[in-house]
């Protein structure tokens, strides 16, 4: 962007506006001085930077940079990733003109290609912070190329694999984890039903225990109980974790999770299982979402994922967690890792959109300030800056927040479970909403070019839109976050203790005093903005302390 004083900028803007209002009587074609030919040089070739871009990349990507670069090269080299060389650079983008069936097959071919190159080694069999960070870095890279592929991997490793890891015990780990890592089996995650999505407790699938046979019997009692939207179920998955009400001797013990086989290794649907396709979607067509009915399917007693509750061979229901609410919260734990990868992938998508739109605005010229003068660079228009640069600033901020979230996740302890749940829910909603807003602005900021498939922004809108719905609807998640924060507030006030955790600590200090002389530089300063937030929070806290008896916050 051209460097110029604010006075020069103001007078140049005045000239431009004046030019719009007072039309020159001369030949209208002469007011545009067109370039003799179109040429484009990427800004990084001609512009110098005021900062070290490599250092900035280190701060943004934060971990496993060499691993990320290795995977970038692996993907670039793979024919299945549809790379195209342009001007000595490789661009990789899925072919969205393929049919839904072809896109689904490409997802499986890409998984096979990455599997052969050892990309998934250790994703389930290795434990510890290093292994977890490497997995998260690889997923960051993969989602940059193909969101369908990242979602299929998320379902297989984080939802199915995560359910076995966190909700199962040794017998499940020994039996399923290695085969999951090598794709000897393909897993999916059957929680949502046609009749119940956000309200998981309301699901209607019922499982009973047959004492004589020592088996569970899973049944879909009505059409609204069919499992719906299950990623991987329509064509590929061989196994699923099924969420169901558990009924023991006529007593409903609430939602539990079981493992069921739904296809054999040749892809034939198992007896007592019916499957249908969810059909074409507005994005994510490389994922085969399906519907499943269980017709009194029998599974061994050992297939109950029993980390928090079990049924003994003689049919006794056993659980160390007596409180049904806490038991239910424990069942939902595999969703945490999914929310983290969704949140971080949403910021990457915003950055791809912004990179395209900002580059465009650094090369595109529109309208001249004077008759016969050169046209003005798009990014020199303040209105264009205001459209893109705050979104860019927020994307930087969310990147750092995402890295913080990853750190809480990989260093989690039983004591940090609540913080992790609340922060991951809030970040998932905020990041994915930010992404959709950013992509729409970037699409429009590129004018007609933004509408071209090749420029990726329009397709990313379709691909990433669903992030506000799956693994916790954003609105519902934000309601949970509000409830958790209000409860935390009331509890801390009741005990007369300072706030700790959940990001409320800034309210421990006194109410700041707003200066009387509010100049524009004070208003723009970050100190003032933090102070202003604190004043708002204190006003809000006064409201809560008065309203909490009416709000019934527990
Ligand atoms: C492409 C795709 C892939 C998916 N993959 C899977 C999968 O692999 N496995 C799986 O189990 N599920 C999957 N899902 C399902 C997904 O998790 C659910 O769609 C999601 O939980 C929302 O449920 P719902 O669709 O029933 O919407 P609903 O819960 O019916 O919500 C509809 C609307 O009502 C609003 N709403 C709901 N409750 C409240 C409330 N209390 N107050 C105010 N407003 C409210 C919501 O904000 C939303 O706008 C997938 C969904 C899609 C679209």
UniProtKB/TrEMBL annotation:
Q: Which GO terms describe its molecular function?
A: acyl-CoA oxidase activity; FAD binding; fatty acid binding
* Location(s), subcellular: Peroxisome
Taxonomically, the superkingdom here is: Eukaryota
Question: Per UniProt, what is one Pfam family of this protein?
Answer: Acyl-CoA_dh_M
Q: Which residues bind FAD?
A: 192, 231
Domain Acyl-CoA oxidase/dehydrogenase middle: start-end pairs: 188-296
Catalytic positions are: 471 (proton acceptor)
GO cellular component terms, alphabetically, are:
peroxisome
Chief location of this protein within or outside the cell? other
Biological process according to GO: fatty acid beta-oxidation using acyl-CoA oxidase; lipid homeostasis
Needed co-factor(s) = FAD
- What Gene3D superfamilies does the annotation carry? Butyryl-CoA Dehydrogenase, subunit A, domain 2, Butyryl-CoA Dehydrogenase, subunit A, domain 3
Acyl-CoA oxidase C-alpha1 domain mapped to chain residues: 335-486
Record's family? Belongs to the acyl-CoA oxidase family.
Protein name as annotated: Acyl-coenzyme A oxidase
